[in-house]
């Protein structure tokens, strides 16, 4: 069993890790397998407010290594996506937390190091600029079609293994990650790989980048240019129990 050594890092994720282990449970919504949150129970758990305070009180300047920065901002995105839902709960979708004249992604969700932050700023202004496309399979926008929320926090010294596992897990899910129809010679991928195509193109293209992470039985199809790629509809319903 992995035992974290938080004193080795600029930020201790133990409290967030404990919440994930306590609350995240597998379920099926609209025929899609996923990990879900019981948002009602989480809203009444004082431990979540303490986690938010911990992230809000931390200065990003204390993060030194690339792994520390990636782990912090991935966890921060996931924490604040949950906070956005809870701040407006009950909602059917995180998008319901947006206003008539503004996107939920551009809405201030909290502060970090004394500076206001939005989910858009964390994703596009910080994480995408770090050149790690697997973030798109690690950050969770509180929706059915999102990658699954892990039952553990991301840790700097385990990040490579966690991101690889997360990518493999997402692409193993035919309901939202990847599905292959051999009769139609079509590969169905999450819309995430269309929306952020340029991030994968910078690493050799979607097909080449995903090949090491897809189930072995699908690798030949992914490498076969005779297979078309289509993108699945995205289900924005809340990933809740």
How does this model look, in words?
The chain is α+β, with helices and mostly antiparallel strands. 38% of the residues lie in helices and 13% in strands. It has helices spanning 14-23, 39-43, 46-56, 66-87, 119-127, 159-171, 192-195, 197-201, 206-210, 216-223, and strands at 25-29, 32-36, 108-112, 115-118, 178-181, 186-189, 228-231. A 3-stranded mixed sheet has the order 5-6-7. Strand 1 and strand 2 (32-36) form a beta hairpin. Helix 4 packs antiparallel against helix 5 (119-127). The protein is globular. The chain starts with 13 loop residues before the first helix and ends in a 10-residue tail after the last strand. 39% of the residues are buried. The model is unreliable at 1-7 (pLDDT under 50).
Query: What is the ordering of alpha helices and beta strands?
Result: HEEHHHEEHHEEHHHHE
- Strand tally is 7
User: How many helical elements?
Assistant: 10
Q: The biggest beta sheet, please?
A: 3 strands, mixed
The gist of it:
This protein has 241 residues and is an alpha+beta fold.
How do the strands and helices of this protein lay out in sequence?
Elements: H1 14-23, E1 25-29, E2 32-36, H2 39-43, H3 46-56, H4 66-87, E3 108-112, E4 115-118, H5 119-127, H6 159-171, E5 178-181, E6 186-189, H7 192-195, H8 197-201, H9 206-210, H10 216-223, E7 228-231
Parallel strand pairs: 6-7
Antiparallel strand pairs: 1-2, 3-4, 5-6
Helix pairs in contact: 4-5
Entry keywords:
241 residues; three-stranded mixed beta sheet; single chain; two-stranded antiparallel ribbon; disordered N terminus; alpha+beta; 7 strands
């Amino acid at each position: 069993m992995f035992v974290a050594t938080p004193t080795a890092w600029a930020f201790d994720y133990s409290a967030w890790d404990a919440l994930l282990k306590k609350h995240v449970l597998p379920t099926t919504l609209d025929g899609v397998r996923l990990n879900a949150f019981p948002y009602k129970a989480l809203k009444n758990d004082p431990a979540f407010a303490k986690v938010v305070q911990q992230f809000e009180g931390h200065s990003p300047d204390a993060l030194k290594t690339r792994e520390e920065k990636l782990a912090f901002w991935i966890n921060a995105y996931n924490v604040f996506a949950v906070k956005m839902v809870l701040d407006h709960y009950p909602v059917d979708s995180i998008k319901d937390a947006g206003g008539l004249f503004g996107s939920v992604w551009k809405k201030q969700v909290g502060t970090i190091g004394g500076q206001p932050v939005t989910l858009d700023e964390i994703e596009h202004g910080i994480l995408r600029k770090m050149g790690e496309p697997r973030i798109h399979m690690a950050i969770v926008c509180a929706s059915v079609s999102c990658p699954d929320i892990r039952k553990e926090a991301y840790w700097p010294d385990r990040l490579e293994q966690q991101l690889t596992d997360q990518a493999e897990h997402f692409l193993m899910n035919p309901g939202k990650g990847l599905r292959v129809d051999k009769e139609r010679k079509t590969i169905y991928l999450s819309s995430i790989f269309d929306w952020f195509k340029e991030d994968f193109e910078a690493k050799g293209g979607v097909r080449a980048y995903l090949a090491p992470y897809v189930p072995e039985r699908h690798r030949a199809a992914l490498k076969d240019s005779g297979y078309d790629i289509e993108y699945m509809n995205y289900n924005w319903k809340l990933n809740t129990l």
